[in-house]
Design brief:
Length: 448
Amino acid sequence: MIISGKQSKLLQLFLIAAFMLLCVAFRTHAQGQNNTDFNRLDSLSYACYLQGDWTCVIQTSNKALDNGYDYYYVRMRLGIALFSQEKYRLAAQQFENALRFSVGDRNALQYLMQSYQYGGLAFEAAALEKQYPDIYQSTFLKAVYMAGGYAFSGSGQAIDEIDLIGEPNVYGALNRSGNYDYFQAGIQFAPFDGARWFAAYSQLHLDKYQRILLSSDDTIAYNYTLTQKQFSLSLPIRLSKGLTLFPELDVFAINNKPLLVLYDTLSSQYTFNTSYSTFTNYVIGLKVLRETPGFTYGLALGKANFNEQSQIQASFIFGYYPFRNLNLYTYSRVSALAQNNSTQLHYKQIIGFRLANPLWLQAGIHFGNLENAIDDNASLMYNLEGKVDFNIFGSVIVLLSKKLTFQLDCNIIQRQSPYVQFSDPENFTYKTYTYTNFNLKGGLLWKF
């Protein structure tokens, strides 16, 4: 069969038109199939949502997202399902995504704020408050904290069991740290929108006891009180989402009045005078933390000048939230402290969990060479003279209301303190005795 040029051209046009119709048919079928999948998943997700079947909502919503169906309602349903399962740190991500589709949506904002607050993401909550000032009314004063405590020392019993003067019977002396009382008052405040700064004042009164033995029958006992005042300031700066910088400063004003002992070599006699001294110590700290739904990690640097020495400490911090909330969490801190041309290592581990709806328990241990170590935010310092072997601690945290929290802390601290023995007026030996302190502190946090 012979096809003319005109017929050939018509045939080509026919084939092109047939191919285009076929493509349209396939595309329409694919779109119909996609629409069917979207409608099926959306309907199933919504039905599970209405029934309160949160596991089903999570499964179907994630399947929709995996298939590329990302929209406001799937994010909201997934967020509410995770929120209802108390996975607040994961839920926050979904409400953040929901706000991409509906900026300023009050329902999403309400859930997001509560997810930040319940999930321990205080600085994200502050940033959200700053972003929507018309919705969240900001106040200067955010919280007030007051705490007090007492420490019972076992040092008194320990020194009764040592031979202070030793075999030479020339001279022996010690300066024992005993019981102490403690008070702290602090505020959290917002000098500008989005800030969460903290300032505190604390005061400690430490019983001191000096014992001097000049011979087996000649003992001098002197009691006095060491007073330590501490001023603390923490100025967190949110650098970006989930990343916060913490500049910190602690200043210690210490008043001391020990008995000063002098030996006159010409007369071979001792003289005793009360020595009043006032000095200042400081801790300068800088910490950076990254927050994710499951983890917190970061680095901390600190510099201090305790006990007429210079300390520099570096730490790695790691926190873990296995259920993406505060129902169970761990906190780990590995530190290296440089002083006296040597490096001291110490490690701190905390585990906390919710025992009941308003009740949390915490337990932990801090061990290593803790002499002059810098603890978190300088809330507990190891700046008393002597070596610290370990600190075992526990806390009970009770949410009395949405605004009021009570916390009770206890610490068992094993210490080694020095004493001196003279074999003659010019030659001496330092020795140590070991004892245990039991600290108890209670405090209230009132949020505004």
